Amino acid sequence: MSLRPLGIAREIIDNTGLEVTYAYDDLLFVEHNPFIVQFDDDNLSNLKLFFNVECEEETATQLEIKLRQAASERKFTIANEGKYELVSEEGAKEFQVRYLS
């Protein structure tokens, strides 16, 4: 497996005015959680985008435009893969990412 392009992905996300707050394995979590980004191990110049179910459609559209523009400038692509939600049991410190179609 090749190294994932974390620096370039951060630059792309920074273009939205948001910051990466946590990186875990192949996922990048963004402040306020409007979306997460997953590295595409089959195509390192592609980033998979998932919007939080709570993110308003207009906001998601504007964020996606900014992400696509910044990605294109770096010869990367963005693939909108759908939505996600964060799920945790009451009182638990851990959470799961649930992908929705």
Annotation keywords:
101 residues, alpha+beta, 6 strands, 6-stranded mixed sheet, 2 helices
Structure description:
The structure is a single chain. By secondary structure, the protein is an alpha+beta fold. The chain has one domain (6-100). 26% of the residues lie in helices and 37% in strands. The protein contains two helices and six strands. The protein has helices spanning 6-14, 57-73, and strands at 20-24, 27-30, 35-39, 46-52, 77-87, 96-100. A six-stranded mixed beta sheet has the order 1-2-3-4-5-6. A hairpin with a 4-residue loop joins strand 2 (27-30) and strand 3. Helix 1 (6-14) crosses helix 2. The termini are far apart.
**Side-by-side strand order of the widest sheet:** 1-2-3-4-5-6
Distance between the first and last residues' Cα? 28 Å
Give the tally of structural domains. 1
Biggest β-sheet strands, sense, barrel = 6 strands, mixed
Number of beta strands: 6
> How much helicity do the residues have?
25-40%
- Backbone shape: globular
What's the helix-strand series? HEEEEHEE
Whole-angstrom Rg: 13 Å
Class derived from helix and strand content:
alpha+beta
How many helices? The count is 2
Low-confidence runs of at least 5 consecutive residues: none
Mean pLDDT: 94
Beta-strand residue percentage: 35-45%
Write the layout of secondary structure elements.
Blueprint lengths: L5 H9 L5 E5 L2 E4 L4 E5 L6 E7 L4 H17 L3 E11 L8 E5 L1
Helix pairs in contact: 1-2
Concise overview:
This protein has helices at residues 6-14, 57-73; strands spanning 20-24, 27-30, 35-39, 46-52, 77-87, 96-100. With 101 residues, the protein is of the alpha+beta class.
